[in-house]
Amino acid sequence: MSEAAHRLLGMTDDEYQSVVAILDRIPATAELAMYSVMWSEHCSYKSSRAWLGRFRHDQPWVVLGPGENAGVVDLGDGWLAALRIESHNHPSFVEPYQGAATGVGGILRDIFTMGARPVAVWDPLRFGPLTEPHNRYLLAGVVSGIAGYGNAVGVPTLGGEVEFADRFSGNPLVNVMALGLLKREQLVTKAAADPGNVAILLGSSTGRDGIGGASILASASFDEDSGVKRPSVQVGDPFEEKKLIEACLELYDRGLVAAIQDLGAAGISCATSESAAAGGMGMDVDLDAVHLREGDMTAGEILMSESQERMLAIVEPEKVDAVLAVADKWEIGAAKIGVITDSDLLRVFQGGEEVATIPAASLSDDAPIYERPSRRPEDLDERWADAPVLPESVDVPAVLLQLLDDPALGDRTWISEQYDHMLFLQTVVEPGHDGSLLRVRGTDKGLAVSTDGDSLRCFLDPRRAAARIVYEAALNVAVTGAAPYAAVDNLNFGNPEKPAVMWQFIETVEGMAEACERLDVPVVGGNVSFYNETDGVDIYPAPVIGMLGFADPLPHRPPRLDRAEDGMEIWLVGHEPGSDFAASALARVILDHFGGRPDAADPETAAAAVANAVRLASTVPVLHDVSAGGLAVALAEICIQSGVGATLEDMDWRLLFDEAPSRFVAVVPTGTDLAIDGLPARRIGAMGGTRMDFGVHGSVDLRQAADVWRNALPRRMNA
Amino acid sequence: MRVAVVVFPGSNCELDAVHALSLLGAEPELVFHRETDLSGADGIVLPGGFAHGDYLRTGAIARFSPVMAEVERHAANGTPVLGICNGFQILTEAGLLPGALVANRDLRFICRPVHVRVESTDSVLTRNAEVGSVLRIPLNSYEGNYVVDTPGLDELEASGGVVLRYSDRHGAVGPETNPNGSTRSIAGITNTSGNVAGLMPHPERAIEEILGSTDGRVLLESFVASTERAPT
Question: Looking at CB atoms within 10 Å, which of A150, A302, A423, A572 has the fewest?
Fold first, then answer.
């Protein structure tokens, strides 16, 4: 084997030398293929691992933290929730429909691998401006991929969020978060105990699709030749996945598997080695037993294939026949491809020959860890000094209409109504509110989820912005009545070999970790996506938080944006803002300005806002977080959804659009005592009429506002 | 009343149907598609989903599932049979209901509550409802656009086979209240005997206040009530 082969597989010379040292010999072709993919950035987290220990997850309600396929938390009464977030950024740029579809499929397997039934999915997305036709094509393709897979596989999509900015034109982001529910006794892990147990490959046959998906596609930057990477994108089949889910849940119900591992990035290499290593065992794998789509596949191809909809079950010998019968019932493929051994070696055979023999644990445990250099961007002070300059006065009605017409602020129904968001009769608060709320059927418990990101603010100050998105997500679940309970994070960044990108990453981790700690929210899992870079341009740093809120019992009638009524009072809860316009919607849409330094969120204020919102949610009809677009946009959303106008007291126009964090609006019947604890709150107006009336600043016809807001996405997408 | 809820590979609303039917006092039972004996069932529900992946065409493979011979036998005997969404598509493929369901006018999946107007009470789906009443029920489909040839349409209208039409909340029917391009805004139909019915909206998603609407109850209550007097 020449050394050049490892470079074609995306490995550095040093990494190759490490493999030689571990094996004490030159690796065989199949072995090199396995190391290359398992040591890729995507699988090994080699550039980020040194920092991820910063996240805490030692709270008593955490059942499983990072390292398993999904984080698991305890909901009491024997119920557990499994959650996970992933990215499918690179494949979705190359092929939006399949890239997004297989992202959904992959994360669902992570959930049902734990023994849980996947019950909901959320999709945070980032695209370039919709003025470019190619970005519209990507948005339409990604949304229909999520819908096509999610709807057919029978897991509802309960929301997500979307941002548009120039740096995502060459590199859109497609993240996906999933939630599963299980009873404690159903929990399964990947650790393959007991020699003699049989490894059964379940599901689709193995083909040449997705070879190098993790190493070649997900762990490298883009350039003008990225189209040739299309064969590295996997192809999804939601019907196979649906059958696989039902078959696996039946296997768990009947106690037929000792352990199970899904096949995602790095396919059989990853599943067999991780399963064996986690149990402190070895495994003998027979590639001739693998059901293939094409007969002439090499050992390396079979080991690296990322064909979708496959699981590896570890089964006691006497239960093998029962497992095969369940596979037959659900019409899925099943093949006995391996046997657990007490050798700690992963030995792979093809055509009677041993094609690979490696220490199972070395694929994951001996992966390199890089502490890459980081450096504060040289122009940061300049960026901070360039604060938006606000005019003395603005035409408030015109500004509001322009903001409501912005695709990032307008109605997202065009997206969410393509997703089945009602399956399982659990959706209490549907997409379109701050957080979505679902009931755990058969209990009084409720779970809320909000995914949040803010890449423009992160570019200006990653640490402050990362903390703010945590607080915002927490407030978003709080206004549905659920207290923040656990989080997962998806860290989307550019090229980590650039010190400025590593600085963004480290600052982000610090900001997120601090905020989660302050709220006592464990971070039970996460994902890092580096190399989001095209032609040398990195994306804006785009961390996304997926916040899980928990309510027990869930509010009888949780707050909704459409429950405001004529005559109700409007209250604003939270500190008066200073002047927080850096990376605000006003600066971006109206002033066409990008600079300044966002305010830091005060942790005590943030925690107080969350606590008050959770308490109010059991009685108050409308609670709404004030975020992008400020008070005016928050109120417009309430007015539009409720079909009632509002009259506000006279105030400085800046207060209408300021985006200072940790504030929310409450709409309540006259005379309600909000009994806000530890935060200022004041009555700022009343609901009524058919206009949004800003006193001295003029008014907006509600129907016109609604029309503009509802058409912000359709008028662009249907153009 | 024992109601068989058929599970095809790819079905996904079967547990929702069971939940709703139980809530309304029926005794639902999941039946796998390979079952060939449904004797003892007082009613049959084909739930929503993507039976056999909707490959070839929605319902095209499901109609050949072993259980369908029993469904046809029961339908002929007057047993109440209800197809919801994908179940409706399967019933048309099986020839138990006329017409077919094709892709939505805008070629996009639609998941949202819609209004439907009750057109006839001569069916197991609408017998407890009032003609002209308007119900708010979620729609959730890509192939929800009902089509039928002209003689079939005339016959359907003449026989009172159209049981639900998409409308606005006041009951007005027109192109602007038609979510998916369905012929004459048809949302649900029945056979000439009134014992086999299919609809695209999901009544089981509108049976509890906490989920936003209880308007689906009257439809499923009609069906459950129909199973009480079914021949054995």
Answer: A572
